[in-house]
């Protein structure tokens, strides 16, 4: 195919977000396999400096929508720009990252341009010149293979699953400036950052989660300390979220977040089916639990049968020593 | 004010998923069906707004006969009436077709001040319908809401984003999707369950909604379902806590190469 793959280059505060660079990388791989071109739509205010980075990850052309009205994300305004990009480039495939923005924006865009949308994909392949997506359902208790009945074939990609390409600074992209109206009936007026600039759970490479085995919220710091030593994010089981120990934003599982980090450490979590659904696609899983029969050990790669109150402080110390020895 | 809540009936989150012999669907014979938990937050919020401001709460769902039970559950919580869109043309509905049907059903209840829905239907996990619906109805949208304050023709909504929260302002009517944290849904009382039996559920098919069957053709289709790949057996690390911790760190570094 000499077809176009359009990607949305998501930036926040003037920085391209890693999940959208993963989408550009995947677009490049698909285009190289099929002989197509990659177009990135870059939307923001004062963002033109990001073109080179997009080119280095494989964009052949960058459509730049640079307006003061695009400084903050607003669904209708960004959907208008992307719909314009779809009309301009007539893509066979449109890829966005399944981030907070991608999740909000992709359905609006799909309805506007009449595209089929497959959410939260963890695999894309070409079958007879058409795309086939693999995506989790039931929070990962099953996987669906999905195809589109028409064009464009629009997909959102889960963070941390599609590998980041090797950037090549010598690659150049054609830059095309475009302009659309930036008005929107709904828009953000204020941002309230989480305490301590916490690492986002769904994008973290390492997640350390705590459950009922910690016996009370006053002990949850043991989980936080290990996460900090590992440079990871903190998660929690539904049981402790429902008991009010920690904010629901930390919940991993079917009614919380689904995560696929490189390393998932489950501390004092027995492994209810709805929790396992949210984390069992993690690459490496460590379980620390008193009960050797706990279901969590059925999905774990490594396990320590023991008391979290004894093991966690030792593990945090061992991790710190390891990090220290690496300099 | 009039509030419409979109509801989806889904398999209970404790369900063990089995793939049907056809290979493209789950075995649904022994599934227990529930209202999608995120939709319960939407229903609860609608009831609280009605209690504060007056008006009525209308539920709408797309689904087969069994979906009536989900509507009865919501009516038992306190919603006033419901619309059930049921049509064989929607048996293979994808989110796009579902949104078209919901939009048509909601138009029959117009004028509407606010449309609420769960931020995702548990199971399908698409997180698409609220945005598709907002576009179909040409309304503003605010998704993953954890707080909603309704003023005169406007609403202020706190929504979840990576690393924190944002406050959004929107004109009404609008589509707002509910996230966990918005509220704690009430249980239906016995009185509510009895009252729900007398409440009206209007059942409408595509023709009654004036929908061309072509507009309900799915844009995506599932060609196969598979169970997740198995995981390797666990390697248990024995010994005193300090020794086990040191050994685990060594294995994570040297063998798994993740730290």
The helix tally of chain B amounts to 6
Helix content of chain B: 25-40%
Largest interface: A-B, 98 and 81 residues
* Neighbour order of strands in the largest sheet of chain B: 9-8-7-10-6-1-4-5-11
Note the overall shape of chain A. Answer: elongated
Report the count of strand segments of chain B: 13
Structural class of chain A comes to alpha/beta
Structural class of chain B: alpha/beta
Number of E-type strands of chain A: 18
Distance between the termini of chain A: 49 Å
Nearest-integer average pLDDT of chain B: 96
* Main sheet specs of chain A: 7 strands, parallel
Indicate the radius of gyration of chain A in whole angstroms: 21 Å
Low-confidence residue ranges of chain B: none
Oligomer: heterodimer
Helix/strand order of chain B: EEEHEHEHEHEEEEHEEEH
How does this model look, in words?
The complex is a heterodimer of chains A (327) and B (259). Chain A has helices at 18-34, 51-56, 75-89, 100-113, 221-230, 238-242, 273-279, 296-299, 308-326; strands at residues 4-9, 11-12, 15-16, 37-44, 61-66, 93-97, 116-121, 123-127, 130-137, 142-148, 153-157, 174-177, 186-193, 206-210, 233-236, 263-267, 284-289, 302-305. Chain A has 327 residues and is of the alpha/beta class. In chain A, the strands form four sheets. A seven-stranded parallel sheet of chain A has the order 7-11-6-1-4-5-12, with helices on both faces. A five-stranded parallel sheet of chain A has the order 15-14-16-17-18. Chain A is elongated, with a radius of gyration of 21 Å. The mean pLDDT of chain A is 95. Chain B is of the alpha/beta class and 259 residues long. In chain B, strand 4 (56-62), helix 2 and strand 5 form a beta-alpha-beta unit. In chain B, helix 2 packs across helix 5 and helix 3 crosses helix 4. The mean pLDDT of chain B is 96. Chains A and B meet through helix 3, helix 4, strand 7, strand 9 and strand 10 of A and helix 3, helix 4, strand 7, strand 8 and strand 9 of B. Strand 13 of chain A pairs antiparallel with strand 9 of chain B.
């Amino acid at each position: 195919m000499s077809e176009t793959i359009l990607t949305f280059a998501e930036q926040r505060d003037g920085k391209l977000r890693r999940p959208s660079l993963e989408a550009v990388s995947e677009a490049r791989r698909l285009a190289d396999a099929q002989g197509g071109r990659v177009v990135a739509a870059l939307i923001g205010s004062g963002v033109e400096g990001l073109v080179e980075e997009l080119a280095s990850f494989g964009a052949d052309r960058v459509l730049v929508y640079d307006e003061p009205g695009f400084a903050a994300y607003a669904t209708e305004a960004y959907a208008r720009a992307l719909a314009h990009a779809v009309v301009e480039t007539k893509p066979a495939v449109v890829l966005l990252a399944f981030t907070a923005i991608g999740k909000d924006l992709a359905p609006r865009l799909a309805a506007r341009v009449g595209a089929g949308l497959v959410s939260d994909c963890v695999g894309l392949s070409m079958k007879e010149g058409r795309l086939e997506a693999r995506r989790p359902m039931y929070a990962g208790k099953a996987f669906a293979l999905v195809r589109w009945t028409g064009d464009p074939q629009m997909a959102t990609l889960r963070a941390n699953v599609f590998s980041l390409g090797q950037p090549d600074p010598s690659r150049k992209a054609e830059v095309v400036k475009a302009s659309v109206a930036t008005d929107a009936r709904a828009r953000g007026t204020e941002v309230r950052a989480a305490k301590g600039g916490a690492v986002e759970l769904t994008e973290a490479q390492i997640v350390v989660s705590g459950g009922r085995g910690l016996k009370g919220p006053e002990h949850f710091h043991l989980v936080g300390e290990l996460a900090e030593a590992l440079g990871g994010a903190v998660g929690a089981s539904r049981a402790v979220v429902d008991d009010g120990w920690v904010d629901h934003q930390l919940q991993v599982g079917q009614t919380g977040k689904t995560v696929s980090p490189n390393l998932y450490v489950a501390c004092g979590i027995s492994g209810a089916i709805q929790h396992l659904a949210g984390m069992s696609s993690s690459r490496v899983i460590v379980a620390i639990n008193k009960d050797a029969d706990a279901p969590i050990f059925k999905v774990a790669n490594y396990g320590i049968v023991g008391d979290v109150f004894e093991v966690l402080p030792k593990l945090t110390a061992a991790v710190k020593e390891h990090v220290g020895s690496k300099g | 004010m009039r509030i419409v809540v979109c509801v989806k009936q889904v398999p209970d989150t404790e369900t063990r998923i089995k793939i049907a012999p056809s290979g493209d669907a789950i075995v649904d014979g022994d599934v227990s069906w529930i209202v999608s938990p995120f939709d319960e937050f939407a229903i609860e919020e609608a009831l609280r707004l009605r209690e504060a401001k007056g008006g009525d709460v209308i539920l709408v769902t797309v689904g087969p006969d069994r979906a009536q039970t989900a509507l009865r559950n919501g009516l038992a919580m306190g919603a006033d009436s419901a619309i059930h869109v049921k049509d064989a043309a929607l048996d293979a509905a994808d989110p796009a077709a579902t949104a078209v049907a919901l939009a048509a059903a909601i138009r029959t209840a117009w004028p509407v001040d606010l449309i609420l829905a769960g931020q995702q239907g548990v199971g399908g996990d698409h997180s698409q319908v609220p945005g598709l619906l907002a576009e179909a109805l040409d309304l503003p949208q605010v998704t993953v809401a954890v707080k909603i304050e309704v003023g005169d023709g406007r609403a202020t909504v706190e929504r979840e984003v990576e690393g924190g929260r944002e406050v959004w302002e929107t004109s009404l009517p609008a589509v707002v999707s509910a996230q966990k944290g918005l509220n704690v849904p009430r249980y239906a009382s016995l009185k509510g369950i009895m009252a729900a039996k007398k409440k009206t559920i209007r059942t409408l098919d595509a023709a009654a909604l004036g929908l061309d069957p072509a507009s309900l053709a799915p844009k995506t289709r599932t060609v196969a379902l598979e169970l997740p790949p198995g995981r390797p057996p666990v390697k248990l690390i024995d010994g005193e806590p300090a020794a086990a911790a040191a050994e685990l760190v060594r294995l994570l570094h040297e063998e798994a190469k993740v730290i």
